[in-house]
Amino acid sequence: ERTFIMVKPDGVQRGLVGEIIKRFESKGFKLVGLKFVWPSEELLQNHYSDLASRPFFPGLVKYMSSGPVVPMVWEGLNAVKTGRQMLGATNPADSLPGTIRGDLCIQVGRNIIHGSDSVESAKKEINLWFSEKEVIGWTPAA
Predict the structure, then answer these.
(1) Which residues act catalytically here (predicted)?
(2) Domain membership flag for residue 142
(3) Count of domains forming the chain
(4) Rounded to a whole number, what is the distance in angstroms from the first to the last CA of the chain?
């Protein structure tokens, strides 16, 4: 199973990319896709299309396009569910210690990371951010 994880602009600006990658690798997931990009508003409107009717949508797109992000594809057993558990609650105040948001952030509007919420959304998000050639299956060393 694969999941889409993205370090948001505040996570990049705070130098947390390495820490986040380390946590996923340490858990046993395999990194099969990685980019460093400054996303367009159009790409972000597409990514967050399910939130388009919400009052915070324009601010979300503005924030997410304010700097570079690090989209990633991780592979492993129950990658979507476990990935979401590793992230913690959307609101860092509700996130348990030991989760990425519980340990590394305090503000809901600057919660440093996005993770797919279902296998279906993971497929959609991976296909939106990565071409087929940019997601690479490989075998780890024994």
Answers:
(1) 114
(2) no
(3) 1
(4) 21
Whose structure tokens read 């030991």? 98
Q: At what angle do helices 17-27 and 79-87 cross, to 10 degrees?
A: 130
Q: Are 116 and 83 in contact (CB under 8 A)?
A: yes
| Contacts of residue 67, Cβ cutoff 8 Å, sequence gap at least 6 | 9, 12, 13, 38
Residues 6+ apart with CB under 8 A from 37: 68, 69, 70, 71
Position 79 in a domain: yes
Closest CA to 71 of 138, 111, 11, 28: 11
For 67-117, write each residue's pLDDT tens digit: 999 999 999 999 999 999 999 998 999 999 999 999 999 888 889 999 999
Q: Which CATH number goes with the domain that contains 120? A: 3.30.70.141
User: Does residue 77 form part of some domain?
Assistant: yes
Residue 111, marked binder: yes
47 is catalytic: no
Residue 8 near residue 114, CB atoms below 8 Å: yes
Domain residues for the domain of 121 are 2-134
The answer to whether 101 is a known ligand-binding residue is yes
Q: Answer yes or no: is 23 a known binding residue.
A: no
